[in-house]
Amino acid sequence: MSRPTKALINLEALRHxxxxxNELSPQSQTMAVxxxxxxxxxxxxxxxxxxDLVPAFGVACxxxxxxxxxxxxxxxxxxxxxxxxxDEIRIAAEKNFSLAIVNHEQKKAILNACSNKQLTSNNPLxxxxxxxxxxxxxxxxPDEILSSYNELIASNGVANEIVIATHFAxxxxxxxxxxxxxxxxxxxxxGKAKSLLNLPLSLANSAAxxxxxxxxxxxxxxxxxxxxxxxxxxxxxxxxxxxxxxxLKSAVIALRDIPVGDTVGYTAGWRAKQPTRIxxxxxxxxxxxxxxxxxxxxxxxxxxxxxxxxxxxxxMITIDVTGLPNISMGDEVILWGEGLSVNxxxxxxxxxxxxxxxxMPRRTPRVYSPS
Length: 371
Ligand SMILES: Cc1ncc(COP(=O)(O)O)c(C=O)c1O
Known about the structure:
By secondary structure, the protein is of the alpha/beta class. It has 2 domains: 11-228, TIM Barrel; 246-369, Lyase, Ornithine Decarboxylase, Chain A, domain 1 (Beta Barrel), CATH 2.40.37. Helix content is 28%, strand content 21%. Strands 1, 10, 13, 14, 15, 16, 17 and 18 form an 8-stranded mixed beta sheet that branches. Strands 8-7-6-5-4-3-2-9 form an 8-stranded parallel beta sheet. A two-stranded antiparallel ribbon has the order 11-12. Strand 3 (56-59), helix 4 and strand 4 (77-79) form a beta-alpha-beta unit. The chain is elongated, with a radius of gyration of 24 Å. The two termini are 20 Å apart. The chain binds pyridoxal-5'-phosphate. Residues 33, 80, 167, 205-207, 221-225, 231 line the site of pyridoxal-5'-phosphate.
């Protein structure tokens, strides 16, 4: 028998969420963003499950792209931060990876590679030009896009269809005008070029795709929604149709009754106010469960919510199961997933679902269904 701690990955739920993204914006192409090991779900397995539903995958870096190619994924792959070296430009052309251009240095390096005929592949290099419309993290100024576009088109070696992309800072906040403001800055910067050149745009992340229909464009780039976590903190008709993909579960490995006044766990920080039954569960921060989850954070046992008491350890947590008379050793415990959203647990721990999912460590086996 092995340790019962597992991250179950429901690939049908993943496909359901991806189909929802496709259906919301049928005129667009979906780039499934599967960086950071597909937000902790396993990049190769996720890519295989989505291959027939999307025309491209988005990743952060060359290493992530090569992992997919080496595993036999033939779908075009886009590097969202572009190339970090001349070598990466050459490899991108060879392997059919498109490159974001997020600063002038990257643009120059690509123009150089084209003029020095370093790109030996027969296929022209596909590039996306990123505009900084207010997030101030990456991208060229919106009014530099047109001249950069012209330089790249004039070079011999870059494919003719150049996508213009931007990224939203606040799309998860449906009351915040910043998204409309970013759209305005983009349109202003592109000016007449947008209609003259009929430039394909890529704007929407998950929150924008779900909640800002005006941002749906030639390419959408959803990430978190694929994994069934709503980007919003409020109910939303489309986001509420998402299904959780990862269910983190474990089991009860010890049961004891403690008297009033006794404490539980490291720092002896939680004290029983009444006779209490404590279940010890085999999951801790070494398995991706957040140390910061305070007493009171719920887990699901027999379909009922029971509170954590005491501090999360590396390999264990302790639960008040006084209200569950039929609890036994070995009973299943759900930490998040079906019936208990990862967003709720992230909220208890003062973080976001993205962090809980992406930092899921190697120690936690991913179990895929269907396998
Ligand atoms: C450039 C870019 N596009 C799209 C995404 C996907 O975002 P989300 O997971 O919020 O859908 C990310 C993720 O951080 C990103 O960096």
